[in-house]
Amino acid sequence: MEAFSDSLFALLNYYDMQLIGGDTTRGPLSMTLGIHGYIPAGRALKRSGAKPGDWIYVTGTPGDSAAGPATGVGG
User: Fold this and answer.
1) Do residues 45 and 39 make contact, with C-beta atoms less than 8 angstroms apart?
2) Helix, strand or coil for residue 61?
3) Could you tell me where the DSSP H helices lie in 34-74?
4) Which one of 16, 54, 60, 68 is most buried, counting C-beta atoms within 10 A?
5) Which are the contacts of 69, defined by CB distance < 8 A and separation ≥ 6?
6) Residue 60: which of 52, 51, 68, 72 has the closest Cα?
7) Closest to 34 in 3D by CA, of 26, 23, 42
8) Radius of gyration in angstroms for the set of CA atoms belonging to the chain, rounded to a whole number
9) Whether 58 contacts 52, CB under 8 Å
10) Are 68 and 74 a contacting pair, CB within 8 Å?
């Protein structure tokens, strides 16, 4: 955990970012990171702009977030 924390703060310092907020959850380990910033008008890359042949990068298995509630587990 210390190595993760050190790396996170090194990146925050490198990109001149601040860590704000937090969340409380029950469980052995939970990590969530949201990054917010400003994009000039007309420069955002949106899913609606995807075209055949574009690369798509996915972590985890597509559909997992919808599958959890459908099983009734974890509620």
Assistant:
1) no
2) coil
3) 64-71
4) 68
5) 75
6) 68
7) 23
8) 17
9) no
10) yes
SS3 sequence of 16-38: CCCCCCCCCCCCCCCCCCCCCCC
Work out the end-to-end distance of the chain between its first and last CA atoms, rounded to an integer number of angstroms: 28
Q: Retrieve residue 56's tokens.
A: 């798509």
pLDDT at 22: 67
Tens-binned pLDDT, residue by residue, of the chain (75 aa): 789 889 989 999 999 888 887 666 677 877 777 888 888 999 988 888 989 999 988 888 888 777 777 677 655
**Hey, what are 31's tokens?**
């990590």
State both tokens at 6. Answer: 């050190």
Per-residue model confidence (pLDDT) at position 53: 94
Structure tokens at 33: 């990171």
